[in-house]
Amino acid sequence: MSEILQINNSDSGFITANVSNSHNDTVAFEIKFAKDLTISQLKSKLEILTGGNAGTMKVELYKGDNLVTTLSDNDAKLGFYINCDGMRLHVVDNFANFTFDTETVEKFELSNDQYEQRSDSVRSFLKQNRLGKYNEEERQQMEIKRREQAAEIQRRADLCVVGSRCQVSVSGNPTRRGTVMYNGQLEGKNGIYIGVQYDEPLGKNNGSVDGKSYFICQPNYGGFVSPLSVEVGDFPAETFDLDDEL
Protein backbone atom coordinates (compact mmCIF):
# COMPACT_ATOMS: atom_id res chain seq x y z
CA MET A 1 0.00 0.00 0.00
CA SER A 2 1.26 3.48 -0.82
CA GLU A 3 2.56 5.47 2.09
CA ILE A 4 0.78 8.74 3.00
CA LEU A 5 3.16 11.28 4.46
CA GLN A 6 1.86 12.78 7.70
CA ILE A 7 4.72 14.77 9.21
CA ASN A 8 3.56 17.90 10.93
CA ASN A 9 6.68 19.97 11.42
CA SER A 10 5.11 23.35 10.78
CA ASP A 11 2.07 25.30 11.89
CA SER A 12 2.02 27.13 8.55
CA GLY A 13 -0.98 26.70 6.29
CA PHE A 14 1.34 26.25 3.30
CA ILE A 15 3.90 23.77 2.04
CA THR A 16 6.59 24.20 -0.62
CA ALA A 17 7.18 21.47 -3.17
CA ASN A 18 9.12 20.96 -6.38
CA VAL A 19 7.10 20.25 -9.53
CA SER A 20 8.20 18.02 -12.43
CA ASN A 21 6.35 16.48 -15.37
CA SER A 22 6.51 13.59 -17.81
CA HIS A 23 6.80 15.90 -20.85
CA ASN A 24 10.34 17.18 -20.29
CA ASP A 25 13.11 17.55 -17.70
CA THR A 26 11.93 20.93 -16.41
CA VAL A 27 11.57 21.19 -12.63
CA ALA A 28 9.95 24.16 -10.87
CA PHE A 29 11.53 24.49 -7.43
CA GLU A 30 9.95 25.49 -4.12
CA ILE A 31 6.44 26.28 -5.32
CA LYS A 32 4.15 27.27 -2.43
CA PHE A 33 0.77 25.55 -2.12
CA ALA A 34 -1.97 25.93 0.50
CA LYS A 35 -2.54 22.75 2.50
CA ASP A 36 -6.31 23.14 2.31
CA LEU A 37 -6.31 22.93 -1.51
CA THR A 38 -8.31 19.99 -2.79
CA ILE A 39 -6.43 17.75 -5.20
CA SER A 40 -8.81 18.96 -7.92
CA GLN A 41 -7.81 22.57 -7.20
CA LEU A 42 -4.15 21.54 -7.06
CA LYS A 43 -4.42 20.00 -10.54
CA SER A 44 -5.79 23.28 -11.90
CA LYS A 45 -2.70 25.07 -10.60
CA LEU A 46 -0.40 22.36 -11.95
CA GLU A 47 -2.10 22.74 -15.34
CA ILE A 48 -0.77 26.31 -15.50
CA LEU A 49 2.70 25.27 -14.32
CA THR A 50 3.21 22.25 -16.57
CA GLY A 51 0.77 22.55 -19.48
CA GLY A 52 -0.91 19.27 -18.59
CA ASN A 53 -4.68 18.84 -18.58
CA ALA A 54 -6.25 19.04 -15.12
CA GLY A 55 -8.98 16.63 -16.20
CA THR A 56 -6.62 13.88 -17.34
CA MET A 57 -3.38 14.33 -15.40
CA LYS A 58 -2.15 11.97 -12.69
CA VAL A 59 -0.18 13.52 -9.82
CA GLU A 60 2.47 11.44 -8.09
CA LEU A 61 4.22 12.38 -4.83
CA TYR A 62 7.94 11.67 -4.56
CA LYS A 63 10.46 11.87 -1.76
CA GLY A 64 13.74 12.13 -3.62
CA ASP A 65 13.50 9.48 -6.33
CA ASN A 66 11.14 7.27 -4.34
CA LEU A 67 7.42 7.22 -5.14
CA VAL A 68 5.43 7.82 -1.95
CA THR A 69 1.87 7.79 -3.26
CA THR A 70 -0.48 8.92 -6.01
CA LEU A 71 -2.82 11.82 -5.25
CA SER A 72 -5.88 10.02 -6.56
CA ASP A 73 -8.71 11.44 -4.42
CA ASN A 74 -9.73 14.72 -6.07
CA ASP A 75 -11.82 15.74 -3.05
CA ALA A 76 -9.06 15.17 -0.50
CA LYS A 77 -6.99 18.08 0.83
CA LEU A 78 -3.34 18.42 -0.12
CA GLY A 79 -2.46 18.49 3.58
CA PHE A 80 -3.88 14.97 3.90
CA TYR A 81 -1.13 13.66 1.61
CA ILE A 82 1.77 15.94 2.45
CA ASN A 83 2.49 18.12 5.46
CA CYS A 84 6.16 19.01 5.09
CA ASP A 85 8.36 20.93 2.66
CA GLY A 86 10.76 19.56 0.05
CA MET A 87 8.63 16.86 -1.59
CA ARG A 88 8.17 16.61 -5.36
CA LEU A 89 4.86 16.60 -7.23
CA HIS A 90 5.25 14.80 -10.56
CA VAL A 91 2.59 15.37 -13.24
CA VAL A 92 1.97 12.50 -15.66
CA ASP A 93 -0.14 13.36 -18.71
CA ASN A 94 -0.30 13.39 -22.51
CA PHE A 95 1.15 16.79 -23.42
CA ALA A 96 0.91 16.33 -27.21
CA ASN A 97 -1.95 18.80 -27.67
CA PHE A 98 -0.63 21.52 -25.37
CA THR A 99 -0.45 24.99 -26.95
CA PHE A 100 0.51 28.27 -25.37
CA ASP A 101 -1.76 31.23 -26.07
CA THR A 102 0.63 34.15 -26.58
CA GLU A 103 -2.28 36.53 -27.09
CA THR A 104 -3.02 36.47 -23.36
CA VAL A 105 0.55 37.41 -22.41
CA GLU A 106 1.18 41.06 -21.65
CA LYS A 107 3.85 42.31 -24.02
CA PHE A 108 6.69 44.63 -23.05
CA GLU A 109 7.14 47.21 -25.78
CA LEU A 110 9.42 50.21 -26.23
CA SER A 111 9.27 53.04 -28.71
CA ASN A 112 12.28 53.51 -30.98
CA ASP A 113 13.34 56.60 -28.98
CA GLN A 114 13.10 54.72 -25.67
CA TYR A 115 15.08 51.82 -27.09
CA GLU A 116 17.71 54.22 -28.43
CA GLN A 117 18.27 55.62 -24.92
CA ARG A 118 18.88 52.23 -23.29
CA SER A 119 22.49 51.32 -22.51
CA ASP A 120 21.83 47.57 -22.11
CA SER A 121 20.38 46.90 -25.57
CA VAL A 122 21.82 45.00 -28.52
CA ARG A 123 21.84 48.25 -30.49
CA SER A 124 23.92 49.94 -27.79
CA PHE A 125 26.35 47.00 -27.74
CA LEU A 126 26.77 47.11 -31.53
CA LYS A 127 27.37 50.85 -31.45
CA GLN A 128 29.90 50.69 -28.62
CA ASN A 129 31.84 47.91 -30.35
CA ARG A 130 31.40 49.30 -33.88
CA LEU A 131 29.84 46.11 -35.19
CA GLY A 132 27.50 45.43 -38.10
CA LYS A 133 25.94 48.51 -39.66
CA TYR A 134 27.56 50.68 -36.98
CA ASN A 135 31.01 49.88 -38.35
CA GLU A 136 31.23 52.60 -40.97
CA GLU A 137 34.45 51.27 -42.50
CA GLU A 138 33.06 47.75 -42.85
CA ARG A 139 29.77 49.10 -44.18
CA GLN A 140 31.59 51.14 -46.83
CA GLN A 141 33.65 48.10 -47.86
CA MET A 142 30.50 46.01 -48.21
CA GLU A 143 28.89 48.73 -50.32
CA ILE A 144 31.97 48.85 -52.57
CA LYS A 145 31.82 45.06 -53.03
CA ARG A 146 28.11 45.25 -53.79
CA ARG A 147 28.67 47.90 -56.46
CA GLU A 148 31.58 45.99 -57.96
CA GLN A 149 29.49 42.83 -58.20
CA ALA A 150 26.58 44.73 -59.75
CA ALA A 151 28.96 46.27 -62.30
CA GLU A 152 30.42 42.85 -63.16
CA ILE A 153 26.94 41.38 -63.60
CA GLN A 154 26.01 44.21 -65.95
CA ARG A 155 29.29 43.83 -67.88
CA ARG A 156 28.73 40.10 -68.33
CA ALA A 157 25.09 40.69 -69.28
CA ASP A 158 26.13 43.17 -71.99
CA LEU A 159 28.17 40.39 -73.61
CA CYS A 160 25.18 38.06 -73.77
CA VAL A 161 23.71 39.23 -77.06
CA VAL A 162 20.63 37.28 -78.13
CA GLY A 163 21.66 34.72 -80.74
CA SER A 164 25.19 34.29 -79.37
CA ARG A 165 26.62 30.87 -78.68
CA CYS A 166 27.49 30.30 -75.04
CA GLN A 167 28.63 27.90 -72.37
CA VAL A 168 26.84 27.76 -69.00
CA SER A 169 28.56 26.74 -65.77
CA VAL A 170 26.39 26.45 -62.66
CA SER A 171 27.64 24.88 -59.45
CA GLY A 172 26.35 21.33 -59.03
CA ASN A 173 25.47 20.94 -62.73
CA PRO A 174 27.45 19.77 -65.77
CA THR A 175 28.76 22.42 -68.15
CA ARG A 176 26.19 22.98 -70.89
CA ARG A 177 26.32 24.64 -74.29
CA GLY A 178 23.57 26.50 -76.02
CA THR A 179 22.33 29.74 -77.55
CA VAL A 180 21.38 32.98 -75.78
CA MET A 181 17.66 33.53 -76.33
CA TYR A 182 16.78 36.18 -73.73
CA ASN A 183 18.55 38.92 -71.76
CA GLY A 184 16.66 40.90 -69.12
CA GLN A 185 14.51 40.72 -66.02
CA LEU A 186 11.96 38.09 -65.08
CA GLU A 187 8.58 39.06 -63.70
CA GLY A 188 8.52 38.86 -59.91
CA LYS A 189 12.28 38.33 -59.59
CA ASN A 190 15.19 40.67 -58.93
CA GLY A 191 18.22 41.10 -61.15
CA ILE A 192 19.15 40.25 -64.72
CA TYR A 193 18.68 36.76 -66.16
CA ILE A 194 20.02 35.18 -69.31
CA GLY A 195 17.66 32.78 -71.07
CA VAL A 196 19.46 29.92 -72.82
CA GLN A 197 18.27 27.24 -75.21
CA TYR A 198 20.56 24.28 -74.56
CA ASP A 199 21.82 21.91 -77.24
CA GLU A 200 20.66 18.93 -75.18
CA PRO A 201 17.62 18.46 -72.89
CA LEU A 202 19.54 19.52 -69.79
CA GLY A 203 17.38 22.51 -68.87
CA LYS A 204 14.36 23.05 -66.64
CA ASN A 205 11.70 24.57 -68.88
CA ASN A 206 10.57 25.50 -72.40
CA GLY A 207 11.49 29.17 -72.15
CA SER A 208 8.67 29.99 -69.74
CA VAL A 209 8.78 30.88 -66.03
CA ASP A 210 5.68 30.93 -63.81
CA GLY A 211 3.43 30.75 -66.85
CA LYS A 212 5.06 33.62 -68.76
CA SER A 213 6.95 32.87 -71.99
CA TYR A 214 10.23 34.69 -72.68
CA PHE A 215 11.30 32.51 -75.62
CA ILE A 216 10.13 29.25 -77.18
CA CYS A 217 11.94 25.93 -77.22
CA GLN A 218 11.24 22.26 -76.56
CA PRO A 219 10.56 21.15 -72.96
CA ASN A 220 13.72 20.76 -70.83
CA TYR A 221 15.81 22.60 -73.40
CA GLY A 222 15.40 26.02 -71.75
CA GLY A 223 16.86 27.66 -68.66
CA PHE A 224 17.48 31.04 -67.02
CA VAL A 225 20.75 31.78 -65.21
CA SER A 226 22.80 34.66 -63.84
CA PRO A 227 25.05 36.46 -66.32
CA LEU A 228 27.96 35.39 -64.10
CA SER A 229 27.28 31.77 -65.11
CA VAL A 230 27.40 32.46 -68.85
CA GLU A 231 30.48 32.60 -71.07
CA VAL A 232 29.86 33.81 -74.61
CA GLY A 233 32.15 32.57 -77.39
CA ASP A 234 32.65 30.23 -80.31
CA PHE A 235 31.15 27.12 -78.77
CA PRO A 236 30.00 24.73 -81.50
CA ALA A 237 27.10 22.44 -80.74
CA GLU A 238 28.21 19.22 -79.10
CA THR A 239 27.53 16.09 -81.11
CA PHE A 240 27.36 12.57 -79.82
CA ASP A 241 28.29 9.85 -82.31
CA LEU A 242 26.72 6.60 -81.17
CA ASP A 243 28.93 4.69 -83.62
CA ASP A 244 31.89 5.48 -81.37
CA GLU A 245 30.28 3.67 -78.45
CA LEU A 246 31.66 0.20 -77.74
UniProtKB/TrEMBL annotation:
UniProt name for this protein: CAP-Gly domain-containing protein
SUPFAM superfamilies: Cap-Gly domain, Ubiquitin-like
GO BP term (any one): cytoplasmic microtubule organization
Major localisation: cytoplasm
InterPro entries: CAP-Gly_dom_sf, CAP-Gly_domain, TBCB_Ubl, Ubiquitin-like_dom, Ubiquitin-like_domsf
Keywords: Chaperone, Cytoplasm
GO MF annotation list: alpha-tubulin binding; microtubule plus-end binding
Entry-linked Pfam families: CAP_GLY, Ubiquitin_2
Entry superkingdom: Eukaryota
Record-annotated CAP-Gly domain positions: 184-226
Family that this chain belongs to: Belongs to the TBCB family.
Location in the cell: Cytoplasm
Gene Ontology annotations for the cellular component aspect, listed alphabetically: cell cortex; cytosol; microtubule plus-end; nucleus
